[in-house]
Every structure is written in C-alpha cells, then in structure tokens.
Amino acid sequence: MTGGNSHGWPLWRRQITVLAKQEIGRSLFSTRSLAVYLLAGMPIALAMLRAIFMSENERAHATHTATEFAQVFHFFLLRFIVFFSAALLFVKLFRGEILERSLHYHLLAPVRREVLVIGKYLGGFVASATILGATVALTIVLFYLPNGSGGMAYLTSAAGLGDVFAYVVTTVLACAAYGALFMLAGLFFKNPMVPAVLFLGWEVLTPFLPGFLKVLSIVHYLGSLEPVPISQGPFALMAQPVPEWLAVIALIVISGGLLALSAWKARGLEVTYSTE
What we know:
Blueprint: H1 9-29, H2 34-53, H3 56-60, H4 65-99, H5 103-108, H6 113-144, H7 148-155, H8 158-188, H9 193-205, H10 211-214, H11 218-223, H12 244-267
C-alpha cells in the first residue's frame, strides 16, 4: 500500500478500531457471553435479597453498609465475579475462535499480529468494563437503597460519589489486568481454566504471603484502591500499603506487559484445527 494514510499508524488505528468494535459486539450481544451476564447478575440478586430480608433496625442505620459492601466487593465481586468474568471473556478472544474454527480468517488477513492482539484486547476490555462497572455501581445502589433517605443522601454526597467512583475504577483496572492475563493464557494453553484456577489460588493466598511476594499479585494492588479498608483475617501478614498512584501505575504496567507477551506469542501463532 502507498500513500500517507494507507500504512503505518493511520492504518493500524483503523484496523484496531474495527477489531475492537467486532469484539465489543460479540462480547455484549452474543450467546458466548451468557455466562458472564449470569455471573454479573449474582451480586445484583444478592443485594436484592439482602434488601428484602434486612431487619428494620438495619434499615434505620446505614453505618454498617459501607463495611458490609467493602467485604462483598473484595471477597465476592473482585475475587470471584470480576475474576471469572474476565476469564470467560478474554480467554475466548483467541482460544474461543480456535475452537469455533474461525481464527484463520484473522490470521490470513493483512493485519499485523500485534494489531490483532491490541484490537481484540481493547474490545474485550471495553465490554468487560461496561458490564462489570455497571454491575458494581448498581450493586452499591441496591446496598444503600434499603437505608432510605439516609442511604441515598450518602450516595449523592461527595464522599459517597467518591466511593462509587473508586469501586468502579478498581473494577475497570481489574478488567484490564485480569483481561490481559487471561488473553495470554488463551494463547498458551488449550484449557485455560486450569491456569485460571492456579491464578485464583495465588490471589486467594496473597494476604498470607510475605511482602516481597505480594507484589506479584494483581489483587494486592487492587486492594490498595478500595476506599474502605477491610480485614483480611487474623492470619494475614501485614504489609506496607501501596500508594494509590503507584497501584494504578503498577496495574497499567502489568496489563501492558502481559499484552506485550500476548503480541509476542501471536507473532508465531499457527492454527491446526485438527490438533485442537
């Protein structure tokens, strides 16, 4: 191709945009994401059940709602819902198309492998951040809704909006980091759910690891961004908290590093469907 806008970055940008839009459509509106929507519905259903069976005394006092949601967010939403939703969405970016015998269309197209990886990743990231960010925001509202005017007053205050923003940003960064991790796993492993379980085990063990090992865990940095501190249990090993700005940089660097590894792996990717 010739011409000032027919090659290089202008071409790659257009290709990335097209690939990202394709993945957003597949991730948001196809049956392959039904399991993700089911996962996303679990904390919403939990919050609704909590609202139905909450006692009148608890409805009148919203003092424990912030702590209660912080526990639910860290141990249920972040470690389970976001983690496995990212696994389901991002593993399918490459491994899913291999199983569907459709990846060769991308590999035969005049698209650089790095562009293919970035486009697919951005599409998966936008879709996961949209689904899970909305899930977290709605769950917070449903947690405070039974507290009546007091709960709504807190949510619409500067402090409440700041907490909602912090939880949503933490979720979005989790999508970025876990998404990059699972896309890489989908390129390396025929059954990425095996490393997913190993990754989950490592994340669960993070509170009990010494400080020099905690830095190898994604949830260590995500926990530093949560607005309400939580107890990790009596056996957790204390570690110096990571400043918020450093946690954000660390998560971006981790995501970028994993994405670079995926691009490197994709350069030599060859698909033989008979062996899959």
